[in-house]
Amino acid sequence: MGVANRPDRDHGSCEHLTVDVAVIGAGVAGLASAIQLRRRGRESFVVLERGRDVGGTWRDNTYPGVACDVPAPLYAYTFRPQPAWTHRYARGDQVLEYLRTSAREEGLAPHLRLRADVRDATWHDDDGVDGGGRWHVTAATPDGELRVSARVLVTAVGRLAEPRTPDVPGLERFEGPVVHTARWGSEVDVRGLRVGVVGTGASAVQVVPQLAGAAAQVVVFQRTAPWVVPRRDAEVPAEERAALQRDPAAVQVLRAGLLAELDAGIAARRRQRPALDALRARALEHLASQVPDGPLRRVLTPTYEVGCKRVLLSDDFYPALLRSDVRLEPSALARVDGRTAVAGSGARHDLDALVLATGFTTTRPPIAERLHGRGGRTLAQRWAGGMAAYASTAVPGFPNLFLLGGPHAVLGHSSAIDVLEAQVEHVLGALEHLRRLGAGAAPLEVDEATEAAYLHDVDAMAAGTVWDDGGCSSWYRDDRSGRLALLWPASAAEFRARNARFDPAAYGARDAHDAAS
Q1: What is one Pfam family matched by this protein (predicted)?
Q2: Do 382 and 401 contact (CB within 8 A), yes or no?
Q3: Residues 29-68: b if buried by 16+ CB within 10 A, e if exposed
């Protein structure tokens, strides 16, 4: 059954769909799921996307200088290589175009429901359709309500979907424009303005050099100094791009080599020497080569272990801070009084605009409030003590629900694509298992003990790493549990080896071959 040609409407205001699989989100993970579903001949699925277009974080983040922070060949699906990146690190608009092209060329249009904001998804043990239980999803659309009944629900909302606004007294009363980097629009114009940038993380090191020189003055509020290493970005020569386009196998070889190179960086995160010392020295040498010895270099020198937070890549962040029209405020924004931004140091800065480079809500995703499992319990309630999931994908009490980009599905040293593709493989294995079991079969659900055993193993891997005791506070950690709830504390290869294969026994199910015989 195709999604586009089987809708039922109720009085013209409510559309009803019945599908095997509903996917929430049309970003990198959601599109990967949809492409693989269609390639495997599965036509009974729908992708619900609240935005006006596909692309997720690459659609939403359009601030000046936005780009990928892993080598471009690693930021493409392995099943859709991209040999034509123009730079060593892909620009944001090029990533977005790659995702749009992927959706179009893979024939996803009939399955996409754009501007469909999921308001509720509730599990029903037996709704009379096939006796095996289904998810009932409700989404708001410009044309009315969309209701979807799905045997399996896949959430692919990502970790970079909900911008985090800092809790700063008076911020809401600031007398000038306030824009988060993830909500940058064409109407934002900082030319000639005094601009404050709040934060010195991944988006800040990209946007600050772009604002410097355009704005009359830039003040950068730094709570914590980041570790920064050289980016060494450059345009890919036309002849190199042409050679890769002629030889698809060469793209895969290049990608595999880069992935192995980044995965080798896990040694430093495990505090292994000399890898850790080499990474620290590389960052300190970069700082010393770009910032003269003195007060500025001292406040830009991190006081925690390298790698505890994501190590940033930039060739122009430090030089931007040396400009006469840029000032580093070595403390956080404490409060706002009219047009005056007051720093934690007590310094007062008169500003015309504020740019919030303050990241995202990661450990408390709003979608968790809208997902109701057995007994009506929300995922947010399940995670009241901290995020957790078996294989970073499944949660007890939530049958036939699979999370992409959830707990322990972030890499602190490499590309997220490989983790997401491994999770998609896990989900595809689960779907194949359900197909063989047939209609009416019991849903797939992990139990508490299975999840606990997995978390025990992940905690053991995290012990002793820079993420565990590196002396920093990061978004990788859930402040409710104190655990590294977001981060996978090992290599991408180890994630794939552990989690890509679907194991029926982990879900209390028989092997699909045995069940079908």
Answers
A1: FMO-like
A2: no
A3: bbbbbbbbbbeeebbbbbbbbbbebbbbbbbbbbbbbbbb
> Which amino acid makes up residue 355?
V
CA–CA separation, 352 vs 178, rounded Å?
A: 9
Q: What is the dihedral of CA 65, 420, 55, 69, to 10 degrees?
A: 10
Tokens of 247: 């030889």
User: 117 and 427 in contact (C-beta within 8 Å)?
Assistant: no
Phi first, then psi: give them for residue 169, nearest 5 degrees: -55, 130
The 10 Å Cβ neighbour count of residue 145 is 15
CA-angle at 179, arms to 308 and 409, nearest 5° = 35
Any idea which fold 171-235+241-356 has?
Answer: FAD/NAD(P)-binding domain (3.50.50)
Give ∠ CA 502-505-510 in degrees, rounded to 5: 100
Q: What is the pTM of this model?
A: 0.93
Instruction: Annotate 154-177 with DSSP letters as a single string.
Output: EE---SSSSBPPP--TTGGG-SS-
Residues of the chain with CATH 3.50.50.60: 8-54+108-162+361-516, 171-235+241-356
pLDDT of residue 511: 56
State how far the Cα of 499 lies from the Cα of 388, in Å rounded to an integer.
Answer: 15
Low-confidence ranges of the chain (pLDDT < 50): 1-7, 9-11, 512-517
Number of Cβ within a 10 Å radius of residue 178: 17
Residue 336 carries which side chain, given as an amino acid letter? V
Ranges of H-type helices in 166-271: 202-211, 238-246, 248-263, 266-269
**Dihedral of the CA atoms 164, 170, 171, 177 (nearest 10)?**
160
Q: Classify residue 24 by its DSSP letter.
A: E
- Do the bridges between strand 134-141 and strand 144-155 make them parallel or antiparallel, or are there none, so unpaired? antiparallel
Cα 223 to Cα 333: distance, rounded to the nearest angstrom = 8
Q: How is domain 8-54+108-162+361-516 classified at the CATH fold level?
A: FAD/NAD(P)-binding domain (3.50.50)
Query: Residue 315's closest CA among 67, 55, 16, 40?
Result: 67
Beta carbons of 151 and 132 less than 8 angstroms apart: yes
Using DSSP, state whether 126 is helix, strand or coil: coil
- Taking residue 437's Cβ as centre, other Cβ atoms within 10 Å add up to 19
- At residue 12, the pLDDT reads 53
- Region of 21 (left: φ > 0; alpha: ψ -120 to 50; beta: rest) is beta
How far apart (Å, rounded) are the C-alpha atoms in residues 90 and 448? 41
How far is it, in rounded angstroms, from Cα 496 to Cα 502? Answer: 11
Q: If you count them, how many residues does the chain have?
A: 517
User: Measured between alpha carbons, how far is 348 from 342 in angstroms, rounded to an integer?
Assistant: 5
3-class secondary-structure state, position 146: strand
